[in-house]
Design goal:
Number of strands: 0
Structural class: mainly alpha
Helix content: over 70%
Strand content: under 5%
Shape: globular
Largest sheet: none
Distance between the termini: 60 Å
Length: 428
C-alpha cells in the first residue's frame, strides 16, 4: 500500500521487531549484572556466567520462536503466499494448504525448545554449583533450565504489548472499513497494520507455548520430587510398562478432546449468531435500508453466555481427568503389589499431555494465522482481490482458522500448566 503522497508504506513488522530486539538486549544486560551479584560464590567462581548464558539461551529461544512464527504467519513470506495461491483453485485447496502450513510450523519451534532445555541443563550441570541434593549436578542442571525459563520471560512485557497491538489494529481496521469517507490510503495502511497485528498475536501464542514447555519440564521434575518426598522412593518411569504407556496415551487423547470441546463451542455459538442475524433481517425490514438499527444486544448476549457456559466442560476435563487416571492406576497398582503405579501413571499422563499440547498448539496457532493473513493478502489485491473466487475461498479458510488461533490454540498452554499444577497437588 501507499500513503497520500504515493510513498510506499513502512513495514510495521520491522519497527516492532526492532523494539523487541532492544527489549531482549536490555534484559540480557540486566541478567549479566543480576547473575554476577546473586550467583557468584567462591566455591564455584564460574557458576554465575554459566547461568548468565542460560538466561541468554532462554531469551534467544523466545526470539527464535517469534521469528519462526513470523515466517509462517506474515504474508510477505512463502507459507502465507502459498495459502493465498491455493485459494485460486478453491475452498478445499485453501484448507489443505493451511493445514500443511500448520503441521510444518510445529517442527522448528519444538527443535528450538529442545535445544534450549538441553543446552541450559548441561550448562547448569557443568557450573560447579554445589547443593544439598542427592545429585548436585542434576539439581544445578535443573536450576540452569529454570534460569533459561526466566530469561525467556524477561521480555514478557514487550511481548504482551505486541499481543495488545493485534486487537487494537483489528478494531481500527473495522472502523475504517465501515467509514465510507475514509480515503483509500487509510484503508491500505489499516489493512497492513491489521495483518501485522495478526502476526504479533501469533507471536505471543507461540511465545506462551514455548515458555510453557520449559516450565512444564521443571514442573515435571518438581512432581517427581514431591513423590520422592512423600514416599521415600525415587520413582522410575518405565514408558514400556503397559499401565504407564496407557496413562500417557490417555494424556495425549485428553488434549484432542479439549480442543474438540473448544472448537465445537465456537461452531455452535456461531450458528446461533447466524440464525439470530437472519431472524432480525426477516423480522425487521428497516435494517436493510439503514432506517432501523439492529438488535446488537441479542448477539452480544448469545456470545457472552456461550463464552462462559461452554468452557465448563473443558475446564472439568482438565481438572478431573488426571485425578481419575492417577486414582484408577493406584488401585490397580495395589492389586498388583506396585504401590507407586499411580504416581508413575500420573507422571506419564503429565509428560504426554504436555508434549501433545505443545505440538497441537503450534499447529492451531500458526495454521490459523496463515489462513487469516492469506485472506489479507488476497484483499490487498492479489489473485483478483476482494470479491474474487480466490477471496471467497480465503474467507472460508479464515473462518476455519479463527477458532484455531483464537480459541483452541491459545488455551492449550493453560491446559499444560493447569495439568501440571493439578498433578502436583493431588499426586502425593
Amino acid at each position: 500500500g501507499r500513503d497520500d503522497g504515493g510513498k510506499a508504506l513502512e513495514d510495521p513488522m520491522r519497527v516492532l521487531t526492532q523494539g523487541y530486539m532492544v527489549a531482549v538486549s536490555l534484559a540480557m544486560l540486566a541478567f549479566i549484572f543480576t547473575t554476577r551479584a546473586l550467583l557468584y560464590t567462591e566455591a564455584a567462581p564460574n557458576a554465575w556466567w554459566h547461568f548468565a548464558i542460560c538466561g541468554f539461551i532462554g531469551a534467544v529461544t523466545g526470539l527464535l520462536i517469534v521469528k519462526i512464527t513470523e515466517f509462517y504467519t506474515d504474508f510477505v513470506h512463502r507459507p502465507v503466499i502459498d495459502v493465498a495461491k491455493a485459494s485460486v483453485s478453491g475452498h478445499g485447496t485453501n484448507i489443505i494448504a493451511g493445514l500443511g502450513v500448520g503441521f510444518e510450523s510445529a517442527m522448528l519451534p519444538i527443535i528450538t525448545v529442545v535445544a534450549a532445555i538441553l543446552s541450559a541443563y548441561f550448562l547448569g550441570r557443568s557450573s560447579g554449583l554445589q547443593t544439598t541434593a542427592s545429585d548436585p549436578e542434576a539439581a544445578a542442571g535443573l536450576f540452569g533450565t529454570a534460569v533459561a525459563t526466566m530469561g525467556m520471560l524477561s521480555n514478557l512485557t514487550y511481548v504482551l504489548a505486541m499481543d495488545v497491538f493485534g486487537p487494537i489494529t483489528d478494531n481500527a481496521a473495522g472502523i475504517v472499513e465501515m467509514s465510507p469517507s475514509c480515503p483509500e490510503a487509510a484503508r491500505d495502511a489499516m489493512d497492513r497494520l491489521d495483518a501485522a497485528g495478526n502476526t504479533t498475536k501469533a507471536f505471543t501464542k507461540g511465545f506462551a507455548v514455548g515458555s510453557a514447555g520449559l516450565a512444564c519440564f521443571l514442573l515435571f521434575n518438581a512432581f517427581l520430587d514431591l513423590v520422592r518426598e512423600y514416599s521415600g522412593v525415587t520413582p522410575v518411569i518405565d514408558i514400556v510398562k503397559p499401565e504407564v504407556f496407557c496413562a500417557g496415551i490417555i494424556g495425549s487423547a485428553t488434549v484432542f478432546l479439549f480442543v474438540a470441546y473448544a472448537m465445537q463451542a465456537v461452531g455452535s455459538t456461531a450458528e446461533q449468531v447466524v440464525m439470530e442475524v437472519r431472524r432480525q433481517f426477516q423480522e425487521i425490514p428497516g435494517i436493510r435500508d439503514g432506517s432501523v438499527k439492529p438488535e446488537y444486544g441479542r448477539c452480544v448476549a448469545i456470545v457472552s453466555q456461550a463464552a462462559i457456559g461452554k468452557m465448563v466442560a473443558p475446564g472439568l476435563l482438565v481438572v478431573f481427568t488426571p485425578v481419575v487416571v492417577g486414582l484408577a492406576f493406584r488401585i490397580l497398582g495395589r492389586m498388583q503389589g506396585d504401590m507407586m503405579l499411580g504416581a508413575k501413571s500420573m507422571a506419564a499422563y503429565l509428560v504426554c499431555s504436555s508434549m501433545t499440547a505443545m505440538l497441537t498448539a503450534f499447529l492451531l496457532n500458526n495454521g490459523g494465522g496463515a489462513w487469516d493473513n492469506a485472506k489479507k493478502l488476497v484483499e490487498s489485491g492479489a489473485h483478483g482481490g476482494k470479491g474474487s473466487p480466490a477471496h471467497k475461498a480465503a474467507v472460508t479458510g479464515d473462518t476455519v482458522g479463527d477458532p484455531c488461533k483464537d480459541t483452541a490454540g491459545p488455551s492449550l498452554h493453560v491446559l499444560m500448566k493447569l495439568t501440571a499444577t493439578v498433578t502436583m497437588i493431588v499426586g502425593p
